[in-house]
Amino acid sequence: MGNTEVMWKLVALIAYLSFAQAVPKKFTSTKLLNSPDPSDTESLVSLPLQLNSPGQGAILDYGHEVAGTPYLMVTAIDQPVQLEVRYSEELSGLDSPFGDGPFPFSVGLSSTFRTETFNVTSPGTIHSYFIQGGQRWQSISQLTEGTLTIAGAGFEASIQYQNPEDLPGHFECSNSAYNEIWKLGALASTAACVEAGSQRATWEITPDGALIHGQKPALSALGNTFSEYTLSFSTKILRGGAGWAQAQTPSLTGLQLLLTSELEEDTTFVNTNTTITPPNSIALAYGYSFVNQSTLPSFYLDNFEIPFAIKEDTWYNIDATLLSDSTLTVAIDGTEALNVSLSDYGVSLGNQYDPTALPGTGSWGFGPWVDQVALYANISVAAQNGTELYRNSLTDEAVLAEYGVARNNATVCLDGPKRDRLVWLGDFFHTTRIIPASTARRDHVLGTLQLLLDWQNEEGLLPIDPPMGTDPLYAPQVGGYLGLADYQTLGLLAFTGYFELTGDMDFAQQLWPGFQKQTSWLISQINTTTGLAEISGFTGPASGTATSAMLVQALNEAATVATALNDTASAKNYTTTASNLADAIDTSLWNEDLGIYSTSLSAPSNFSVADISFAITSGIASHNTTRLTSLLAALEQLSLGPGYKDTSATSTTDPTVNISPNINGFLLSALMRANATMPAKFLLDTLWTAMIDDDATSTGASWEYVNAATRGPGLGLFTSLSHPWGGAPTYILPQWVAGVRSVRAGYEEWVIVPGLGFNVTSASARVPTRFGELSVSWEAVGEILSVNVTAPEGTKGRVELPGVAGRELGMWNVNGKDGKGGEKIELGAGKSSVTFDMRDS
Ligand SMILES: *[C@@H]1O[C@H](CO)[C@@H](O)[C@H](O)[C@H]1NC(C)=O
Ligand SMILES: *[C@@H]1O[C@H](CO)[C@@H](O)[C@H](O)[C@H]1NC(C)=O
Ligand SMILES: *[C@@H]1O[C@H](CO)[C@@H](O)[C@H](O)[C@H]1NC(C)=O
Ligand SMILES: *[C@@H]1O[C@H](CO)[C@@H](O)[C@H](O)[C@H]1NC(C)=O
Ligand SMILES: *[C@@H]1O[C@H](CO)[C@@H](O)[C@H](O)[C@H]1NC(C)=O
Ligand SMILES: *[C@@H]1O[C@H](CO)[C@@H](O)[C@H](O)[C@H]1NC(C)=O
Ligand SMILES: *[C@@H]1O[C@H](CO)[C@@H](O)[C@H](O)[C@H]1NC(C)=O
Ligand SMILES: *[C@@H]1O[C@H](CO)[C@@H](O)[C@H](O)[C@H]1NC(C)=O
Ligand SMILES: *[C@@H]1O[C@H](CO)[C@@H](O)[C@H](O)[C@H]1NC(C)=O
Ligand SMILES: *[C@@H]1O[C@H](CO)[C@@H](O)[C@H](O)[C@H]1NC(C)=O
Ligand SMILES: *[C@@H]1O[C@H](CO)[C@@H](O)[C@H](O)[C@H]1NC(C)=O
Ligand SMILES: *[C@@H]1O[C@H](CO)[C@@H](O)[C@H](O)[C@H]1NC(C)=O
């Protein structure tokens, strides 16, 4: 037997293991759909599960975030039975008709809907059409008469799940809550990062056109600048209806239209909500969808009855025209079905980035409503003078990558697995620091940053949130570079941060030309009059502390990369530019009366968590202890509920105010650097524990937002409960509690300073480095601190006793040799054992 065969078997086994199915850990039985209680273990049932009347069902608990294509194994059935299945990250989502969805912001190569209905007709395994991107809970309810046996259920994994306990990086300490908190970012970045090819196309191209299942309309990449057009297409409804969108603005809102069939009994599920989709009608909405979703408003404008039956399995020709005076007309097979003025509904069509664009400018797209299926073909788009602007038969696979529904070519990290499932540029600051401390998946970081560079524009800008299903060749038409300019800086920091933690030269070399170009753009945004960055966005306004200080940090970190690559000219430019920018911040933005760095020149009395965080991590505030001290004192004014509210202007009484673990993650780093142990401990103990305290909301992964008043998920059911941007403690705990930090890129040189202020008596961490594994463990017994280090060849470092910098050490012992005094103990590769007597230091 050849080695090749053995190797292939191994590869197959590894592939099988790493994409193993996720199966539920717990089944809770039937009739529990209203307010199920996860602690109600009495109602636990085991497989096989027998269902024999409508209203029966089960709740499945997967124990933590899982992702993949749902399946149900039915072993016996006596007649066709309709089953409704719901998915949710938090348990209470199962009580809602749409689960914790829908997610109409983007198509994400997954299901928009979190509820689906099956018509089960015979024994066998049923698969969902779509991937469900992320959930812990699932419910199954029987809708119609009959008896069936379910012998298994689960998800065919769409991610490479690994138990956070078994990752290359590791952290553990005497506080078990911190151990669970460490795992949050590790699991979130496991669940949010997807391998090339693992997310399949969501449209099926047939000789008759594109077969599309209920999903947010996927948009053509080519129509963004089109206005006053007539969109014509043919559609054949296979179940329920056919939907489309027009005038989609860059913020992904616009017109939504839905043609509903006569709803033949043979194909209509009994749970079909005909309030939204009455038979033989066109529903019209403006916004993201036909139903509201927390931060994504939708306005159901009207419903138009069609004066004839809309048959399923029958082709219809649709012509839809939107003019800039807001007149909308739709004709079906040449018969006018609606003719309205959108202004009568109070809709004003606009384009946030281009005020000169004609009202109603924007692309078109196709996608039916939940559980519906339709074929679409022969698209044409024409100007009002009759000129054809676009034509596509939807019979060629190439169309998938134009509409953003093609199988993903790149290994990338998304913002989160359940939604938005976009490559959000500004989200990766924490992700690229979490990965080296946990999964060590270099391919996840490299793939993400390379995809962003594949979309880079002429000016050097990276796209804010490119989709994984669109070919980057459409970048010029899709655009998406505007708004949130600070995401550019955060993107650069994602690159530099990964280099700092890994010292990975090949990585740096591959990405350097692109990031260098992006850095030049960032430098060009510095105002020559004020010396401050004209960069605004998520973290703060232009000419402000957060966005300028963040750029100081990014430029200094970029200089480190430039130096490593022998690009000394760039390194010098970046450090000089950073130093000038830092001086401008110190001079113009420090408010002596309030003892704060101001949010901006035009808001001198305001300050924010991001201002304070980046003023510290950029090194600006640490030059001056007076300023640092007053800044930390001012922070207390932002304390709200479990963390710190974004800005001094944020309401303290509004019950919808959220605490951002992303922004508080920047802060956590800053507090550690400033030795501000008490507020850092406060954040760990109250903000991050919110994600682990309640079994009904915890997923084992870090959250997008935490509500200030309730400590529950911040955006209701919409909240991503698996968001790497909320997982900062995964890299901060090893660095500041276990205390092992890189001093020279990639831990070539390291320092260990045990984090004694955290009410932790022992801690250990394992850090994968390019030299091998670096591990440390320490324990404080009474006044004796012992530290064990195992360092790989090629590295060296030192151990310091916290708080003794500048002071002499007391009695110490290194590998059996006693000593006294000094500031630190220098160590080389191999195993070392250090003991300090803290009584006399
Ligand atoms: C379910 O399947 C049965 C058997 O094929 C069929 O008769 C019935 O019309 C289907 N119901 C729906 C709602 O699709
Ligand atoms: C049907 O949809 C309407 C409009 O969204 C909603 O108010 C109603 O609660 C829904 N009914 C059910 C049973 O889900
Ligand atoms: C969504 O919420 C807005 C504002 O609360 C409301 O005006 C609108 O009618 C709602 N839309 C739907 C579809 O319920
Ligand atoms: C027709 O309209 C299109 C789009 O507005 C324009 O580009 C084209 O020049 C027009 N053609 C004629 C013949 O006016
Ligand atoms: C994936 O690569 C193929 C081959 O280059 C290309 O045709 C397709 O458009 C790409 N798809 C995406 C989503 O980039
Ligand atoms: C630079 O700052 C000055 C002074 O605040 C302002 O007038 C000018 O518009 C700014 N320039 C840019 C390009 O924003
Ligand atoms: C940088 O220059 C040094 C000294 O000339 C050389 O040893 C090293 O290989 C260079 N590094 C790179 C990345 O070119
Ligand atoms: C840095 O380079 C930019 C061009 O990218 C140039 O405009 C700027 O003057 C340089 N700054 C310094 C301090 O050398
Ligand atoms: C430190 O900051 C304080 C308060 O703004 C200021 O009075 C003092 O001059 C600063 N010290 C130095 C060395 O810059
Ligand atoms: C310190 O840790 C101990 C043991 O885990 C715990 O009982 C105690 O409440 C903690 N104290 C503080 C201030 O966190
Ligand atoms: C350090 O290593 C020694 C010898 O293996 C072991 O006995 C001791 O428990 C270790 N201490 C810590 C803090 O890990
Ligand atoms: C924090 O403490 C360390 C010694 O443990 C010291 O080197 C450092 O300067 C301190 N940082 C600040 C900002 O006080």
From TrEMBL:
- UniProt cross-references to Pfam families, sorted A to Z: Bac_rhamnosid6H, Bac_rhamnosid_C
What positions does the domain Alpha-L-rhamnosidase C-terminal occupy? Answer: 739-807
Q: Tell me where on the tree of life, at the top rank, the source sits.
A: Eukaryota
Keyword terms, alphabetized: Signal
- Span of the signal peptide: 1-22
Instruction: Tell me which residues make up the Alpha-L-rhamnosidase six-hairpin glycosidase domain.
Output: 401-599
Q: Keyword Ion transport, does the record have it?
A: no
The record ties this protein, via Gene3D superfamilies, to: 1.50.10.10, Maltose phosphorylase, domain 3 (2.60.420.10)
Record protein name field: Alpha-L-rhamnosidase
Organism name = Knufia obscura
